[in-house]
Amino acid sequence: MDIVMDAQALNAFLARDFPQVADDHVVEAINGDVLTARLRVADAHLRPGGTVGGPSIFALADIAIYCAILSRIGPVALAVTTNATIDFMRKPAAGRDLLARCRVLKLGRSLAVAEAMIFSDGAPEPVARCSMTYSIPPKQPENSRL
């Protein structure tokens, strides 16, 4: 699949259209068919016991998969998650950022299916595995009015 948006363009898109997540999440690289995104773990992401909470792990997976899909189709802000499954496999390492490694498995006209493996930075074993399906809105004709 061809790359339409690189890491720099995806980060600029997040900063412009989703500023509420852009400070904590960054697309680090797109290498071949794998997009890598980082959650900069801060106190706000921690649950009692000092580990990263499930909602923060899920958010990383969702943002990373969204960006992996946009890297192929361009800046479609209205593409939305229609299905998500996540398996939490182990406790994240304390004091480390989380990395999501994503692959788009199928890209159709109206649906995209992708997966993300979440790791503590520097750790070989995954923290979580997530698969998601996104709905891609139909393209609007250039001269149409909303």
Automatic annotation (TrEMBL):
Domain of life: Bacteria
UniProt keywords, alphabetically: Hydrolase
UniProt KW Hydrolase keyword: yes
Entry-linked Gene3D superfamilies: Hotdog Thioesterase
Keyword 4Fe-4S: no
Positions of the Thioesterase domain: 49-122
InterPro entries: HotDog_dom_sf (IPR029069), PAAI_dom (IPR003736), Thioestr_dom (IPR006683)
Listed GO MF terms: acyl-CoA hydrolase activity
Protein name: PaaI family thioesterase
Organism: Paracoccus sediminis
Phylogenetic lineage: Bacteria, Pseudomonadati, Pseudomonadota, Alphaproteobacteria, Rhodobacterales
